[in-house]
Protein backbone atom coordinates (compact mmCIF):
# COMPACT_ATOMS: atom_id res chain seq x y z
CA UNK A 1 0.00 0.00 0.00
CA UNK A 2 1.32 3.43 -0.97
CA UNK A 3 0.49 6.59 0.94
CA UNK A 4 0.13 8.68 -2.22
CA UNK A 5 1.59 9.08 -5.70
CA UNK A 6 4.63 11.06 -4.53
CA UNK A 7 5.64 8.39 -2.01
CA UNK A 8 5.16 5.76 -4.72
CA UNK A 9 7.31 7.81 -7.09
CA UNK A 10 10.14 8.16 -4.59
CA UNK A 11 10.14 4.40 -4.00
CA UNK A 12 10.08 3.82 -7.74
CA UNK A 13 13.01 6.19 -8.24
CA UNK A 14 15.16 4.08 -5.92
CA UNK A 15 14.59 1.05 -8.14
CA UNK A 16 15.30 3.10 -11.26
CA UNK A 17 18.48 4.71 -9.89
CA UNK A 18 20.64 2.37 -12.02
CA UNK A 19 19.72 4.57 -15.00
CA UNK A 20 20.73 7.82 -13.28
CA UNK A 21 23.84 8.32 -15.42
CA UNK A 22 22.03 7.65 -18.70
CA UNK A 23 20.95 10.30 -21.17
CA UNK A 24 17.37 9.91 -20.01
CA UNK A 25 13.91 11.40 -19.97
CA UNK A 26 10.79 10.60 -17.95
CA UNK A 27 7.51 10.46 -19.87
CA UNK A 28 4.54 10.63 -17.52
CA UNK A 29 1.06 9.50 -18.47
CA UNK A 30 -1.47 12.20 -17.53
CA UNK A 31 -2.97 12.76 -15.22
CA UNK A 32 -2.23 10.25 -12.45
CA UNK A 33 1.26 9.42 -13.69
CA UNK A 34 2.47 13.02 -13.48
CA UNK A 35 3.15 13.30 -9.71
CA UNK A 36 4.76 9.84 -9.80
CA UNK A 37 6.84 10.90 -12.80
CA UNK A 38 7.78 14.17 -11.12
CA UNK A 39 9.25 12.32 -8.14
CA UNK A 40 11.17 9.92 -10.41
CA UNK A 41 12.47 12.72 -12.67
CA UNK A 42 13.57 14.82 -9.69
CA UNK A 43 15.49 11.98 -8.07
CA UNK A 44 17.17 10.89 -11.32
CA UNK A 45 17.84 14.42 -12.55
CA UNK A 46 15.91 13.78 -15.79
CA UNK A 47 13.57 16.14 -17.63
CA UNK A 48 9.86 15.41 -17.28
CA UNK A 49 7.47 15.46 -20.23
CA UNK A 50 3.97 14.18 -20.86
CA UNK A 51 3.05 11.11 -22.91
CA UNK A 52 0.68 12.76 -25.36
CA UNK A 53 -0.68 9.60 -26.92
CA UNK A 54 -4.08 7.95 -26.90
CA UNK A 55 -5.20 4.49 -27.81
CA UNK A 56 -7.23 3.64 -30.88
CA UNK A 57 -9.87 1.13 -29.87
CA UNK A 58 -11.42 -1.65 -31.92
CA UNK A 59 -14.76 -0.57 -33.47
CA UNK A 60 -16.55 -3.47 -31.73
CA UNK A 61 -14.83 -2.92 -28.37
CA UNK A 62 -13.36 0.51 -27.70
CA UNK A 63 -11.50 -0.77 -24.63
CA UNK A 64 -9.48 -3.18 -26.80
CA UNK A 65 -6.54 -1.17 -28.15
CA UNK A 66 -5.56 -1.89 -31.73
CA UNK A 67 -3.09 0.96 -31.80
CA UNK A 68 -2.14 4.38 -30.51
CA UNK A 69 -1.63 7.83 -31.95
CA UNK A 70 0.34 10.95 -31.12
CA UNK A 71 -0.02 14.33 -32.77
CA UNK A 72 2.65 13.43 -35.31
CA UNK A 73 2.63 9.63 -35.66
CA UNK A 74 0.58 6.50 -35.06
CA UNK A 75 0.90 2.74 -34.69
CA UNK A 76 -1.76 0.21 -35.71
CA UNK A 77 -1.93 -3.57 -35.45
CA UNK A 78 -3.70 -4.52 -38.71
CA UNK A 79 -7.07 -6.20 -38.30
CA UNK A 80 -8.84 -7.46 -41.43
CA UNK A 81 -12.25 -6.50 -40.06
CA UNK A 82 -11.21 -2.89 -39.33
CA UNK A 83 -11.59 -0.65 -42.41
CA UNK A 84 -9.09 2.08 -43.28
CA UNK A 85 -11.84 4.69 -43.07
CA UNK A 86 -12.43 3.85 -39.41
CA UNK A 87 -8.73 4.33 -38.63
CA UNK A 88 -8.68 7.68 -40.44
CA UNK A 89 -11.73 8.93 -38.51
CA UNK A 90 -10.31 7.74 -35.18
CA UNK A 91 -6.99 9.47 -35.90
CA UNK A 92 -8.82 12.76 -36.44
CA UNK A 93 -10.79 12.39 -33.19
CA UNK A 94 -7.76 11.30 -31.15
CA UNK A 95 -5.60 14.13 -32.43
CA UNK A 96 -8.28 16.69 -31.67
CA UNK A 97 -8.32 15.47 -28.06
CA UNK A 98 -4.51 15.41 -27.90
CA UNK A 99 -4.32 18.98 -29.24
CA UNK A 100 -6.74 20.04 -26.50
CA UNK A 101 -4.54 18.31 -23.88
CA UNK A 102 -1.43 19.96 -25.31
CA UNK A 103 -3.01 23.39 -25.02
CA UNK A 104 -4.49 22.68 -21.58
CA UNK A 105 -1.18 21.52 -20.11
CA UNK A 106 0.91 24.02 -22.10
CA UNK A 107 3.00 21.08 -23.27
CA UNK A 108 5.80 21.35 -25.84
CA UNK A 109 4.45 22.01 -29.32
CA UNK A 110 7.40 20.39 -31.06
CA UNK A 111 7.94 16.64 -31.01
CA UNK A 112 10.21 15.47 -28.19
CA UNK A 113 13.49 14.04 -29.47
CA UNK A 114 13.77 10.54 -27.99
CA UNK A 115 16.40 9.15 -30.34
CA UNK A 116 19.29 7.50 -28.49
CA UNK A 117 17.79 8.24 -25.06
CA UNK A 118 16.75 6.09 -22.14
CA UNK A 119 13.01 6.67 -22.02
CA UNK A 120 11.26 5.89 -18.74
CA UNK A 121 7.48 5.73 -19.08
CA UNK A 122 5.79 6.30 -15.73
CA UNK A 123 2.20 5.89 -14.57
CA UNK A 124 0.55 5.47 -11.16
CA UNK A 125 -0.27 1.87 -12.05
CA UNK A 126 -1.30 -0.49 -14.84
CA UNK A 127 -4.65 -2.24 -15.21
CA UNK A 128 -4.72 -4.27 -18.46
CA UNK A 129 -1.62 -2.78 -20.09
CA UNK A 130 -3.24 -2.72 -23.55
CA UNK A 131 -3.07 1.05 -24.02
CA UNK A 132 0.48 1.19 -22.69
CA UNK A 133 1.49 -1.62 -25.03
CA UNK A 134 0.30 0.38 -28.04
CA UNK A 135 2.06 3.50 -26.69
CA UNK A 136 5.35 1.58 -26.37
CA UNK A 137 5.12 0.48 -30.00
CA UNK A 138 4.60 4.10 -31.00
CA UNK A 139 7.57 5.31 -28.94
CA UNK A 140 9.80 2.63 -30.51
CA UNK A 141 9.41 4.45 -33.82
CA UNK A 142 11.35 7.38 -32.29
CA UNK A 143 14.42 5.08 -31.95
CA UNK A 144 15.25 5.50 -28.25
CA UNK A 145 18.24 3.60 -26.86
CA UNK A 146 16.12 1.93 -24.16
CA UNK A 147 12.48 1.90 -23.17
CA UNK A 148 11.78 1.38 -19.48
CA UNK A 149 8.36 1.19 -17.85
CA UNK A 150 8.19 2.16 -14.19
CA UNK A 151 4.98 1.77 -12.18
CA UNK A 152 4.15 1.27 -8.50
CA UNK A 153 1.59 -1.51 -9.07
CA UNK A 154 0.42 -3.83 -11.85
CA UNK A 155 -1.28 -7.24 -12.16
CA UNK A 156 0.83 -10.23 -13.17
CA UNK A 157 -0.93 -10.65 -16.52
CA UNK A 158 -0.08 -7.09 -17.58
CA UNK A 159 3.51 -7.53 -16.40
CA UNK A 160 3.90 -10.66 -18.55
CA UNK A 161 2.43 -8.86 -21.55
CA UNK A 162 4.65 -5.78 -21.30
CA UNK A 163 7.93 -7.38 -20.20
CA UNK A 164 8.52 -8.80 -23.68
CA UNK A 165 8.15 -5.39 -25.31
CA UNK A 166 10.54 -3.20 -23.30
CA UNK A 167 14.14 -3.25 -22.10
CA UNK A 168 13.11 -3.19 -18.45
CA UNK A 169 9.86 -3.21 -16.49
CA UNK A 170 10.10 -2.01 -12.90
CA UNK A 171 7.02 -2.74 -10.78
CA UNK A 172 7.10 -2.29 -7.00
CA UNK A 173 4.02 -4.37 -6.25
CA UNK A 174 2.51 -7.29 -8.19
CA UNK A 175 -0.43 -8.36 -6.02
CA UNK A 176 -1.99 -11.82 -6.05
CA UNK A 177 -5.41 -10.18 -6.08
CA UNK A 178 -5.62 -7.08 -8.27
CA UNK A 179 -8.77 -4.98 -7.84
CA UNK A 180 -7.86 -1.69 -9.50
CA UNK A 181 -4.90 0.66 -9.16
CA UNK A 182 -6.63 2.93 -6.63
CA UNK A 183 -7.01 0.07 -4.16
CA UNK A 184 -3.28 0.17 -3.46
CA UNK A 185 -3.13 3.84 -2.45
CA UNK A 186 -4.31 5.42 0.79
CA UNK A 187 -4.75 8.71 -1.10
CA UNK A 188 -5.79 8.21 -4.72
CA UNK A 189 -7.42 11.60 -5.23
CA UNK A 190 -8.02 12.62 -8.81
CA UNK A 191 -5.19 14.74 -10.20
CA UNK A 192 -6.53 18.00 -11.63
CA UNK A 193 -5.35 19.76 -14.78
CA UNK A 194 -3.99 22.55 -12.57
CA UNK A 195 -1.95 20.06 -10.56
CA UNK A 196 -0.49 18.57 -13.75
CA UNK A 197 0.64 22.03 -14.84
CA UNK A 198 2.06 22.70 -11.37
CA UNK A 199 4.11 19.46 -11.36
CA UNK A 200 5.46 20.22 -14.83
CA UNK A 201 6.43 23.75 -13.82
CA UNK A 202 8.14 22.49 -10.66
CA UNK A 203 10.10 20.00 -12.71
CA UNK A 204 11.24 22.69 -15.17
CA UNK A 205 12.47 24.88 -12.32
CA UNK A 206 14.49 21.99 -10.91
CA UNK A 207 16.19 21.43 -14.27
CA UNK A 208 17.22 25.05 -14.79
Describe the structure.
The protein is built from six helices and eight strands, in the order αβαββββαβαβαβα. It has helices at residues 5-16, 33-44, 84-104, 130-140, 156-163, 193-207; strands at residues 24-28, 48-50, 54-58, 61-69, 74-76, 118-122, 146-153, 168-173. The strands form two sheets. Strands 2-1-6-7-8 form a five-stranded parallel sheet, sandwiched between helices. The protein is globular and about 45 Å long.
Helices, strands, pairings?
Elements lengths: L4 H12 L7 E5 L4 H12 L3 E3 L3 E5 L2 E9 L4 E3 L7 H21 L13 E5 L7 H11 L5 E8 L2 H8 L4 E6 L19 H15 L1
Helix pairs in contact: 1-2, 2-6
Entry keywords:
208 residues, alpha/beta, Rossmann fold, Ybab, Chain: A, five-stranded parallel beta sheet, three-stranded antiparallel beta sheet, 8 strands, 38% helix, 21% strand, globular
Briefly, what is this?
The chain is of the alpha/beta class. It has 6 helices and 8 strands.
Structural class by sheet pairing and helices = alpha/beta
Tell me how many strands there are. Answer: 8
| Largest sheet properties | 5 strands, parallel
User: What is the mean pLDDT?
Assistant: 92
Q: What general form does the structure show? A: globular
Strand order of the largest sheet: 2-1-6-7-8
Distance between the termini: 34 Å
Instruction: Give the count of structural domains.
Output: 2
How many H/I helical runs? 6
Named at the architecture level, the CATH assignment of the largest domain is 3-Layer(aba) Sandwich
- Cα-based radius of gyration, to the nearest Å: 16 Å
CATH class of the largest domain: Alpha Beta
SSE string, helices as H and strands as E: HEHEEEEHEHEHEH
Detail the poorly predicted runs: none
CATH topology value of the largest domain = Rossmann fold
Percent helix: 25-40%
Residue share in β-strands: 15-25%
